[in-house]
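From: lab user (bench 3)
To: helpdesk
Subject: output format question, protein + zinc ion

Hello, I'm new to running complex predictions and I'm not sure whether the block I got back is the full result or only part of it. Here's what I submitted:
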Amino acid sequence: MGYKAKELTEEMLVKREERARKRRLQAAKKAEESKNQTIERLTKTSKAKVKTLRERKAKAGALPTVCYRNAASGITVSFPPGAALPLLSSIVTAPPPPTPCGVSGCPNLKRYSCSRTGVPLCSLDCYKKNLLLQQAAA
Ligand SMILES: [Zn+2]
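Helpdesk reply: Thanks, we reran it on our side. This is the complete output you should expect:
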């Protein structure tokens, strides 16, 4: 650089300075453009995302929704008006009708079945009676 520096005239220095300035400007301009493009891309993406989310929310709002609330005042499950309860029929099953004791003359209800005969029984007394009856019948 030593001998070249001597050859440089003031005009050359000015020109070189000018070129460097232009280059810097152009680089800055490019950087700015790329920055803007990035920003635009990002904002476009987020806008699209927001739009999609909004559309999804709107769709969910249009659909009948079952709402479950667990609050201090109590637990509630709200169904949209007019919606059937598909759960109820499967959950609520009528309890089996009570079976009376199998020993004739006994007014009690069945509590267990005889392990030998399978006859519904209410107590140990009826168990014995039933066995006696079975033996008598046999
Ligand atoms: Zn009985």
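A quick orientation on your result: Residues 101, 103, 106, 108, 121-123, 126 surround zinc ion (CB under 6 Å). Let us know if anything else is unclear.
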